[in-house]
Amino acid sequence: KAGVTQTPRYLIKTRGQQVTLSCSPISGHRSVSWYQQTPGQGLQFLFEYFSETQRNKGNFPGRFSGRQFSNSRSEMNVSTLELGDSALYLCASSLGQGFFHYGYTFGSGTRLTVV
Amino acid sequence: GQQLNQSPQSMFIQEGEDVSMNCTSSSIFNTWLWYKQDPGEGPVLLIALYKAGELTSNGRLTAQFGITRKDSFLNISASIPSDVGIYFCAGQLRSGANSKLTFGKGITLSVRP
Questions:
Q1: pLDDT tens, A10-23?
Q2: Which residues of B touch A107 (CB under 8 A)?
């Protein structure tokens, strides 16, 4: 069974630009969460989507947004990029609410570098 | 945001040795998870714990859910070179629609052959 697929794997953007990252969850998984990983802050929760609805949001500015499609695929968008947005962005999928017993399965991440 | 406490940041052990890692929190969780991350990859789930006091094994790995629900530990026995990586603990408080994971900053494990 295919795992969580994140595209692209690597991305270089300039300050002020915007970026869209994509995540395809494991087939049958309806919940997708996004995390930002940096050496200084570790893994920080961005948001979680279930059935196309944002169910939970972390403490990130409004420049960070996301959405989920009817096929459970998710995208996250960062507008007006800042140097500090350079990070590994990880997507994790799970069966969804009521099915917590399998934890989350992470993708390999998108490495975003802002120059 | 809230984070779990994992220390030390790095551990260096000899191949064949056992190693224990601890994770503590000021808040309670009703699920504890342990993940391992290899360079350039996402974290991979090692063990999940769902009840206070639960002790679970997965091969050479053993983890326990603390009875106060504020801590967990992971033991790796008879370490091998492929155990090298970053080990994260994560707590989850399942409450209604809230199921986000709170992570520790991770412990980088090095294994000397």
A1: 999 999 999 999 99
A2: 42
